[in-house]
């Protein structure tokens, strides 16, 4: 039997940690957007850099735990007591694939957005000729991150929460 994560389900600490991070990151991204709309560009820059660093560390630790310690998500699912039905596993596999589309594209898009900003904005951050491109990339990054968060929470709930109800 798998140990219980801190949310009380048969997961791992890091899986629960990443799910909580996915829920927290969306309001923080909105806060960052509020900062830029209020023309507090330096606050926006600092918040984005902090979020990127925190998520990079969290996702790295999560992947190390998931792949090397837990042996992959299927090992977590296979150790579930009582065993999950084949229907739950099939649905979870499908949901995970959808989630991974966004989970893989988000850090790539976010990195392009951050690197572009670091290369094209002075310190302190101020609007420039690059602002239109950055704004488009920023919106795409935020939409992608929200979809990563939503699909991740749906996968978690469908795989670990709903089968226990």
Short characterization:
The chain has 5 helices and no strands. The chain has 165 residues and is mostly helical.
Helical residue percent?
over 70%
Domains, number: 1
User: What share of residues are in beta strands?
Assistant: under 5%
Order of helices and strands: HHHHH
Rounded to an integer in angstroms, the radius of gyration calculated over CA atoms is: 18 Å
Features:
single chain; mainly alpha; 5 helices; 0% strand; membrane
Explain what this protein looks like in three dimensions:
This protein is mostly helical. The chain has one domain (13-164). It is 76% helix and 0% strand. It is built from 5 helices and no strands. The chain has helices at residues 13-37, 41-69, 73-78, 86-120, 131-161. It holds the Pfam family DUF420.
Question: Secondary-structure map with pairings?
Answer:
Elements: H1 13-37, H2 41-69, H3 73-78, H4 86-120, H5 131-161
Helix pairs in contact: 1-2, 1-5, 2-4, 4-5
């Amino acid at each position: 039997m798998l140990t219980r994560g801190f949310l009380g389900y048969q997961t791992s600490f890091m899986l629960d940690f990443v799910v909580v991070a996915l829920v927290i990151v969306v309001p923080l991204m909105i806060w960052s957007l509020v900062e830029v709309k209020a023309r507090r560009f330096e606050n926006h820059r600092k918040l984005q850099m902090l979020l990127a660093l925190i998520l990079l560390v969290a996702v790295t630790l999560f992947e190390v735990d998931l792949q090397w310690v837990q042996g992959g998500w299927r090992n977590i699912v296979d150790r579930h007591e009582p065993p999950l039905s084949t229907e739950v596993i099939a649905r979870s596999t499908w949901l995970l694939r959808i989630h991974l589309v966004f989970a893989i594209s988000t850090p790539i898009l976010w990195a392009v957005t951050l690197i572009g900003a670091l290369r094209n904005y002075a310190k302190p951050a101020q609007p420039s000729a690059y602002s239109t491109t950055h704004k488009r990339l920023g919106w795409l990054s935020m939409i992608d991150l929200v979809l990563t968060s939503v699909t991740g929470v749906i996968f978690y709930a469908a795989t670990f929460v709903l089968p226990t109800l």
